[in-house]
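#struct-queue
[09:14] JT: dropping the first one here, sequence first, then the C-alpha cells:
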Amino acid sequence: MNEFEKDPQSKNLDIADSINGFTFSFLFFIIIFAIGVTISVMH
C-alpha cells in the first residue's frame, strides 16, 4: 500500500465528488443553452 492511500487529503467519497462535478457541469451547459435560446427567440 502506498503512502498516499494511508492519509488522503480529501475524506469525501469519490461518488459524491463525481455527482457534484456532473451536476455543476450539467447546470453550466443548461445555463449556456438557455442564454442561446433566449437570444434566438428575441431575434
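[09:21] JT: and here's the second one, same format:
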Amino acid sequence: MEYGEFDNLARTEEKQHQFYRDKLSYEIDAWDLAEMMKSDADVVVIDARSKEAYEAEHIVTAVSFPHPTMTFASTRGLDPEKTYITYCDGIGCNASTKGALKLAQLSFKVRELLGGMDWWKRDGYQTEGAAPQFDRAVACGCSG
C-alpha cells in the first residue's frame, strides 16, 4: 500500500462501523423486540398499516396508527420519552418505514421492526385479531 491509502482504509472502515451502529439503532428484529416488550415499559409498538389490516391481525399490545394519519396534531398525545417501534406486513410493504420517518421527523425516538408481521410470526411470536395465525415458528438463529 502506498502512503495515504492507510488513512483512506481507516476512514472507510470507520464509515462502515458507523453504518452498522446506526443500522442497529434504527432497526430491531423480532427477538430483540420480544425481549424488550417483556422488560421495557418505555416501548410502544405501532402497527403502521391500515385499520383493516390491524383488525385482522396484529402484534399483541400493538396500537393501530396508520402512517397516513401521523401528523403533528395526531401525535400530540404520544410520550416523547418512549421509543416507538413501527411495523407493517414485511419486506413487500413500506408502511413501517413511512411511519418511522414521520415519527422521526416529529422528533420521536423510533425504530423499525425488520421483516414486520411476517418475521414476527415466522419467529413464533403471538398475534391477535380477527384472523391470527399460529404455529409458523422458524428459528432464525440470531437471538442473543
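[09:30] RK: nice, looked through the second one.
[09:31] RK: Strands lie at 27-28, 43-47, 58-59, 63-64, 83-87, 109-113, 127-128.
[09:31] JT: good to know. The two ends are 38 Å apart (CA to CA).
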